[in-house]
Design a protein that fits this description.
disordered N terminus; 2 helices; about 5% helix; about 350 residues; mainly beta; Methylamine Dehydrogenase, Chain H; 29 strands; 4-stranded antiparallel sheet
Length: about 350
């Protein structure tokens, strides 16, 4: 998945100029047909990308998606791997949702995997990971006894420390939880600052300054926020920060009702798009200050004005979209092993 630390390496002004010179983005399918639903996607650079999905499957490409190495992790053939974080062609961490919940790590390109975290507690369900640096990461899960599950790593995922319930300020209401839709409802920044969004009967944003209600569709188990992205060159959110949040109702994937909000002042006020995305959206990604992509079950949308207006560029459904941590390539992943990249038509 995209990590906050990719902004440290990614030269945004150059890419912004590239986008300005490009006419419009298009979606090119690279591969499909593998019997798995892909929700985890981590793009290390323009060539190296990893995916993870149902049936204990992990995929890796080292040549920009031209060819793939598909792995069914032994002993985890029935596990849903809903998120993955990769650091290079050899090292990656994959998240198995529950019950029990697992985090597995490979150091040899997926040939072998080591359990680095295991939780057999009843009701345990992991939703997403994010890393602010190659060493520092966070994983979140659905609430147990009204408190969100949160754990941190400071050694590149080799060990994880759970945040005690007494120290966990993220209290969720009955029927409020996190969606394990794309691994993008949590963003971690330096000094342990994190931002996460919830859905269900209530949809809220939680950050260092507390929790606020979001003007998104909510009230049912299938509604609310699914993903958040923050554009601020990799530093913690401040007064002028840009954020975008997407969601809607995955049970009504073509509904455009209250499925996107954005802010240009760090969340002080929220705006709704003049032309919203064309349905429920499970993931959103800033490409530059003004350019964004969002994807969902019924297609992909593109905004070139900071989220004010969205254009439907593909009706192929995807769960997750990610831009390279180092580079400019953008990839998507979804059902039936479908993986695609964004091309820019000049």
């Amino acid at each position: 998945m995209k990590s906050a630390f990719r902004f440290i390496f990614f030269f945004l002004p150059a890419f912004s100029s590239f986008l300005i010179s490009a006419q419009s983005p298009s979606v090119e399918i690279l591969t499909s047909g593998t019997k798995t639903s892909l929700r985890g996607l981590s793009v290390v650079n323009d060539n190296i990308l990893w995916v993870s999905g149902s049936g204990g499957i992990v995929g890796k490409s080292s040549n920009g998606g031209k060819t793939w190495k598909w792995i069914t992790v032994p002993g985890f053939e029935k596990t849903e791997f809903r998120d993955i974080e990769a650091f290079d062609a050899n090292v990656a961490i994959v998240m198995g949702i529950g019950e029990p919940a697992y985090l597995l790590k490979t150091n040899d390109g997926g040939d072998t995997w080591k359990i680095v975290y295991e939780n057999k507690e009843k009701g345990m369900f992991l939703d997403a990971m994010d890393f602010s640096s190659p060493r520092d990461g966070i994983v979140i899960g659905d609430p147990i006894n009204g408190k969100a599950f949160i754990a941190f790593t400071h050694d590149s995922g080799n060990t994880w420390e759970e945040l005690p319930s007494a120290d966990n300020r993220v209290t969720l209401d009955s029927g409020e939880a996190f969606f394990a839709a794309s691994g993008s409802n949590v963003r971690l920044f330096e000094k342990g600052q994190y931002y996460l969004v919830s859905g269900g009967t209530r949809s809220r944003l939680t950050g260092p300054n507390g929790t606020v209600m979001l003007p998104l569709l909510q009230g049912k188990e299938s509604t609310g926020a699914n993903a958040i992205d923050i554009f601020d060159n990799g530093i913690p959110v401040k007064a002028g920060s840009r954020m975008v949040i997407v969601g809607g109702d995955f049970a009504a994937d073509s509904s455009r009702e209250k499925n996107c909000v954005y802010t240009t002042n760090g969340g002080k006020t929220w705006r709704t798009p003049k032309t919203p995305p064309h349905g429920y959206r499970s993931c959103v990604e800033y490409l530059s200050k003004k350019d964004l992509l969002a994807c969902g079950l019924n297609g992909v949308d593109y905004s070139e004005d900071g989220g004010k207006n969205w254009k439907w560029i593909s009706k192929e459904g995807f769960h997750v979209v990610r831009i390279a941590k180092v580079g400019t390539m953008i990839y998507l992943a979804g059902n039936k092993g479908r993986i695609a990249r964004i091309n820019w038509d000049r």
